[in-house]
Amino acid sequence: METEINxxxxxxxxxxxxxxxxxxxxxxQWIINNLPPIEKKLKKIHGLSPDIHKVNLxxxxxxxxDTAGMILFIQTRLALKKKGIIVKVTxxxxxxxxxxxxxxxxxxxxTLPAWQQKHIFLELFExxxxxxxxVYEGITLFFDFVGRxxxxxxxxxxxxxxxxxxxxxxxxxxxxxxxxxxxITTFLIGIVIAFQSAFQLKQYGANIFIxxxxxxxxxxxLSPIITSIVIAGRSGSSFTAQLGAMKITEELDAMSVMxxxxxxxxxxxxxxxxxxxxxxxxxxGDVIGIFxxxxxxxxxxxxxxxxxxxxxxxxxxxxxxxxxxIKGPFFAVTIATIGCFRGLQVTRDTESIGRQTTISxxxxxFMVIIIDALFSIIFTEIGI
Amino acid sequence: xxKAIIQVENLVTRFGxxxxxxxxxxxxxxxxxxxILGKSGSGKTTLLREMIMxxxxxxxxxxxxxxxxxxxxxxxxxxxxxxxGILFQFGALFTSLTVAENIAVKLKEYTHISDSLIKDIxxxxxxxxxxxxxxxxxxxxxxxxxxxxxAAIARALAMDPKLLFLDEPTSGLDPIxxxxxxxLIIQLKNLLGLTIVxxxxxxxxxxxxxxxxxxxxxxxxxAEGPIDDVAKSDxxxxxxxxxxxxxxxxxxxxx
Lengths: 384, 255
What we know:
The complex is a heterodimer. Chain A has a four-stranded mixed sheet with strand order 1-2-3-4. Chain A has two domains: about 15-115, Transcription Regulator spoIIAA; about 160-380, no CATH class. Chain A is built from 13 helices and four strands. In chain A, α3 (about 65-80) crosses α4, α5 (about 120-160) crosses α10 (about 260-300) and α8 (about 210-250) runs parallel beside α12. The N and C termini of chain A lie far apart (about 80 Å). Chain A is elongated, with a radius of gyration of 36 Å. Helix content of chain A is about 70%, strand content about 10%. Chain B is of the alpha/beta class. Helix content of chain B is about 40%, strand content about 25%. Chain B has helices at about 45-50, 75-80, 100-110, 115-130, 145-155, 175-190, 205-210, 225-230, 235-245, 245-255, and strands spanning about 5-15, 20-30, 35-40, 60-65, 65-70, 85, 165, 195-200, 210-215, 220-225. In chain B, the strands form two sheets. Chain B has a six-stranded mixed sheet. In chain B, strands 2-1-4-5 form a four-stranded antiparallel sheet, with helices on one face. In chain B, β1 and β2 form a beta hairpin. In chain B, α3 packs across α4, α3 runs parallel beside α5 (about 145-155) and α4 packs across α5. Classes of the chains: A alpha/beta, B alpha/beta. The interface between A and B is large, with 33 and 38 residues.
């Protein structure tokens, strides 16, 4: 490979004093891989003594020069000229001249502006302004999106023409295939809750109260929240990535040109699918979570499954169960709407898919928790 | 006898049961502009991708600069990769970088030259491909299709490669820009001793700048050689291609 790479440690630049002037002898292969040492050697010209008024650049020794090499040569020549030195270039060969003319031809006219550094405060204010505007714009766009989705929903309702096939496929994708992960997480949460309480309960000999602790906590708060967070990470992100990729590949444009309303064809099926599956998954989580608690109750507290269930039937008020379940559709709409909205926010660069997916998941988890807090206040106020 | 830069021998490519190439032999000489021609689906781009190691052929040998791509060790492959520039059909610019950063990416990774030199190189390359300097700060998503192509050419030329692969370089450019691009290619070839391999359908490009071509068809090379010789061939596809309105005009009035 050595012959191809051409990194040679030659004397690319040699300085020669001649009376009042200076002879700079340039030689070797002035190609891009050799330029770092050449640049380093040429730095000497900045420290030339002021009594040198004439410089002769002897280029006859340059055996090969590429565009980068020529650009460096021209830079050097200009730097010398700027110091008020008369520069003469001697003995260029044909190849050198042709390359020189090529680059000089392109050199004319404007130059690239320096990459200027802004003042730190200016930058701060600019960032602040830009961000505020982005947030404002994001909110308006989001309301626009929600409005359009709702309009599409009304249209479907009016004509009773829901996209059943897509929706059922999405129910399978977001619901059925999520069962294992929901089972594992809620089972573990049930176990953890029971474990943590078991120790305290044992101290008071109130072992049987494990039933209330596990069932109420699971059905009312834990299962809805945990399930929603898992679904936000699992389905919300996939909605964003999918719609975002479709936007980049111009599939969305193709659809709208064919007259397929993307809100009817893409957004609504996803929203409806989640509205149906999330409450079901929450119920599933309730059952598995309670089962986890029951396991610990048997092993740690000696409460048999039979007495656990009997107690459950006696003391468990169904309102807790309904309170947890009713949150499902709200969480579902939040997750699906944010997921799809963020997908449509993807721009033509690939990085934005990643960015929007992250924002989508963060936003929907955050919103799920806020809505949960709101529900908790409302339920307390109306005494559920 | 000129030195061969690329030598492809008995190349076979299969996608599953679908045979794309069945014994391809071509040779690209140093300092020439070599065109690969063929119908859509004849495996032109696949052949190109195999030469730049994006795809592995099922059988056969590809030699570039005298090195067998199949047996070269990773270190040398890496060194080989620095010596060629590639223009993808749709530019393939990095969308998260500005045009200037796209052009500078190899310069910054592989060389230790100063920022001021890099800046000048970017400016010259932009002007070479006919882009205004204000595009330097723009992102690929803000450019038109033709501008993306030019920026991608500027990026391919950044390191002054000895070997340039172009996948449909002039498609998507207006005729004037296409002609200017052809001129640029010739100029660079003469100045830098570039060897250029291009896949193209542009009949003007083929007649103006291409030295030798290979016509792919029926999984084989139908003809290889200087353009005038190949145009005389009486294979139906070649006759059709050069005998069409645009082709025959060119032949009648010469280059």
